[in-house]
Give the backbone structure.
Amino acid sequence: MEHVKALAIKAVMTLAVLFIVLGLGFGISFANVVLITVVLGAVSYLAGDLYILPKTNNMTAAAADAGVAFLVVWLMLWAIGMAAGTAALAALISAVVMAIGEYFFHQYISHKDLGMNSGRNRHWETSSDH
């Protein structure tokens, strides 16, 4: 159930950011914004939130999420027909704003028993914490 709550929070954050940046800023249709949100949310939740964050720290995971966001948004915008340069600019703005949001999302998710965070896999715990 914690995954559902975390994914819902991430989905709302991602949709809001991408709608403002891509929809309002670059005229991308809401349907395409939703599609990009779903793909980006799935990839970044699995890679950044459940795998990278528990093994590193918040800043590293937020930077990784920014890289993933840039690539996913840029490639998907390019695939729907946006010029590569314009798509790169839209992706860069999206990635920077997403990284800021992810930093705060990571603070929430780091305290949950999810993925690599579960049980004794928490890298920040010491043996005296058990």
User: Anything to note?
Assistant: Residues 116-130 have pLDDT under 50 and may be disordered.
